[in-house]
């Protein structure tokens, strides 16, 4: 591999310290980017040694690195940053979306070195229209295959394990269709509350923060047809097919969505609306649910229920495939009518298959059993996995332009119905299980 330069715009920020540098550290420790030059750029008046200390503390490594003080929305400053690069740069925008857009506009006035890659964080725009505008700006800078729109869920080993679970054995795949599956749930309920992220979160909310991005990617993997290979074109085409076919259940945003925000409770002293930096009139939701239809031959008629919430007492991070009942249980067998379920856990990382068999004791009485397997952690944390794709020039795990737009297209009618007041903003105490009238199964 040739020498590489990673330029982090927004180097002094929280994302860089909490996720990016630890991911990079894991990659360095695994020997993936031996000739790396790292350049940190931000407006703060830091010097090389303060930055190097940040890199050491957060990444656990000490790559060749320097700090360039720069206003990254000015072309002249960006030229100075790029002049410090050694080898084809990957420019990581660890910046709020509005600043990223301005930095990209400034880059139009800069001659970008051959092989430059652009790495962007979510959210990619705030609607299909704004995502399309950002996408067309980006493709004026570099070709699409050099644009990495990061969704760190695609770097999670368990999310990627969905591919092995589905396509590397003959057991499950023949059952994963509308003949056998009653419903699919993708749930990411967190105990974390706002964590001082009001500046970002109060403009996003649970629908954009989790469902439009991460959970739709999981849906893409769960529902896609088998790709011929994991080459970027194959994998991303199959995922795009599914997301293009996805729409709201019955095209009825009011009936198939729920929104709520937490009030004070055991997991948060403050109600969301009272958290510093939150504008309560924005009515930002901290919990969102939607029911989607995947209108393909395979999945037509099967509801996909997606939900994510913060400050919930019952942490639940999993995809659950619920199977239809057997056509007929012989008379004489009785006692258990729970449906069969395949669960894929995203922390703890495990799968389990729950089904009914004759249990111990009375052989005519059915009992539920569960076959399970734990997944060990992946070699790399999600950001390490995503960065590996950037350094290898492999966009497989990046979100393609059209998919970013499709994911907004799917949720936009919900946002519109919420804005029009067609779905009430419910409340739930922090630490509870969320509002009572959930759209989930149980
Ligand atoms: C982030 C969201 O993208 O993903 C957070 O902005 C969320 O709100 C987080 O908590 C969950 O991901 P992980 O990997 O930390 O479980």
Mean pLDDT: 95
Can you tell me the number of structural domains?
2
Bound molecules: 6-O-phosphono-beta-D-glucopyranose
Element-level helix/strand string? EHEHEHEHEHEHEHHEEEEEEEEHHE
**Helical stretch tally:** 10
Ends apart, CA distance between termini: 50 Å
Low-confidence stretches: none
Biggest pleated-sheet summary: 10 strands, mixed
Taken as a percent bin, the fraction of beta residues is: 15-25%
Shape label: globular
The CATH architecture of the largest domain comes to 2-Layer Sandwich
Q: Which structural class fits the helix and strand makeup?
A: alpha/beta
Rounded to an integer, what's the Rg over CA atoms? 23 Å
CATH domain class name of the largest domain:
Alpha Beta
CATH topological fold name of the largest domain: Dihydrodipicolinate Reductase, domain 2
Helix content range of the residues, please?
25-40%
Fourth-tier CATH superfamily name of the largest domain: Dihydrodipicolinate Reductase, domain 2
């Amino acid at each position: 591999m040739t020498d590489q330069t990673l330029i982090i715009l927004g180097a002094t920020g929280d994302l860089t310290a909490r996720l990016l540098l630890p991911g990079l550290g894991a990659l360095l420790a695994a020997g993936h980017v031996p000739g790396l030059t790292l350049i940190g750029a931000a407006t703060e008046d830091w010097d090389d040694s303060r930055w190097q200390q940040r890199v050491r503390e957060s990444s656990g490594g000490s790559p060749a690195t320097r700090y360039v003080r720069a206003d990254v929305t000015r072309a002249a400053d960006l030229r100075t940053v790029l002049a410090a690069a050694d080898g084809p740069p990957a420019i990581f925008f660890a910046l709020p979306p509005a600043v990223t857009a301005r930095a990209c506009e400034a880059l139009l006035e800069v001659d970008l070195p051959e092989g430059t890659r652009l790495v962007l964080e979510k959210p990619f725009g705030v609607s299909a229209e704004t995502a399309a505008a950002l996408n067309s700006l980006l493709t004026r800078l570099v070709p699409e295959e050099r644009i990495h729109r990061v969704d760190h869920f695609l770097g999670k080993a368990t999310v990627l394990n969905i591919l092995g679970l589905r396509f590397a054995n003959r057991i499950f795949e023949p059952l994963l269709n509308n003949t056998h599956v009653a419903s699919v749930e993708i749930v990411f309920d967190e105990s974390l509350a706002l964590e001082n992220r009001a500046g970002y979160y109060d403009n996003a909310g649970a629908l954009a923060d989790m469902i439009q991005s991460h959970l739709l990617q999981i849906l893409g993997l769960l529902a896609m047809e088998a790709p011929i290979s994991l080459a970027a074109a194959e994998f991303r085409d199959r995922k795009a097919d599914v997301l293009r076919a996805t729409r709201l259940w019955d095209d009825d945003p009011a009936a198939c969505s729920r929104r709520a925000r937490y009030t004070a409770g055991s997991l948060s002293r403050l109600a969301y609306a009272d958290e510093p930096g939150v504008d309560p009139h924005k009515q930002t939701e901290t919990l969102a649910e939607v029911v989607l239809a995947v209108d393909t031959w395979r999945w037509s008629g099967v509801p996909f229920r997606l939900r994510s919430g913060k400050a919930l007492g019952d942490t639940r991070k999993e995809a659950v495939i619920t199977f239809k009942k057997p056509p007929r249980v012989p008379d004489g067998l009785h006692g258990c009518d729970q449906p069969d379920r395949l669960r894929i856990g995203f922390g703890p990382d495990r799968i389990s298959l729950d089904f009914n068999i004759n249990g111990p004791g009375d052989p005519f009485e059915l009992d539920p059993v569960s076959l399970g397997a734990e997944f060990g952690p992946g070699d790399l944390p999600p950001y390490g996995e995503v960065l590996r794709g950037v350094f290898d020039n492999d966009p497989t795990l990046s979100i393609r332009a059209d998919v970013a737009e499709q994911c907004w297209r799917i949720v936009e009618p919900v946002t519109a119905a919420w804005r029009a007041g067609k779905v009430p903003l419910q409340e739930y105490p922090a630490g509870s299980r969320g509002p009572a009238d959930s759209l989930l199964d149980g």
